[in-house]
Amino acid sequence: MALTKSAAQMVAEARARIEEITAAEAISLAEDANVQIVDLRDVRERERGGFIPGSFHCPRGMLEFWVDPDSPYFKPIFGEDRKFVFHCASGWRSALAVDVLNGMGFEAAHISDGFTGWKDAGGPIEFKQPKT
User: pTM of this prediction?
Assistant: First the structure.
């Protein structure tokens, strides 16, 4: 079966429609109380590589349900009046996710170069403390 559109094409189209923020810009926004960074990566990625301090973890598979106030899975953090900036590892998943959210009427941006860009730009990283 031949695909009519590649994943790379989908990401490029999404990026043309959404707000992109570089990791360097996101680092400067991270301390702003009106900004919430949201991590879409898998829990294993967060455990292995760390995470952005203060970020909220929302697995990509639950995003639409957690954002929708009519969903039984709604998370109140997404009802707050803040700027939401999403990220994944490299910016592909978050570009697609933000494109979907914008289509739902939920305004958001994403970190164009993802968590990798955040690390490369010298952004702070935390690791989950082991259970004692």
Answer: 0.93
